Amino acid sequence: MPASPVALAHALAAIAHARRSRRNARALRNDRTLQTLVTDLVAARTAVGMSQREVAERMWTTKSAVSRLESGRVARPTLDTIEKYALAVGARVEIRVRSAR
Questions:
Q1: In a domain, 81, yes or no
Q2: With a threshold of 0.70, does the pTM exceed it?
Q3: CA 13 to each of CA 30, 43, 73: distance values in angstroms, whole numbers, following the listed order
Q4: Which of 14, 9, 24 is nearest to 71 (CA)?
Q5: Is residue 36 domain-resident?
Q6: What is the total count of domains within the chain?
Q7: Consecutive H or E run containing 15
């Protein structure tokens, strides 16, 4: 018996989502600036002895969201998210522009 149109639409949406997630994860892995930023955030968290759960509570989010951010499994975190994380661990974000030369 063929799948219903609704079931087929859900299956196709799930496949498309999985492809986008893999593509975004690859882009994140290739972005050295963002990798460095996330590494610095994790270092700030561990320096103050906080757990991911504690950071999540201060950010009003879930531990799994913090874990995804730290592992690079999230597609390009927003500046707002990065600032909230930094604030939660007692750090601050500095943005600078440097000459490419």
A1: yes
A2: no
A3: 26, 37, 19
A4: 24
A5: yes
A6: 1
A7: helix 5-30
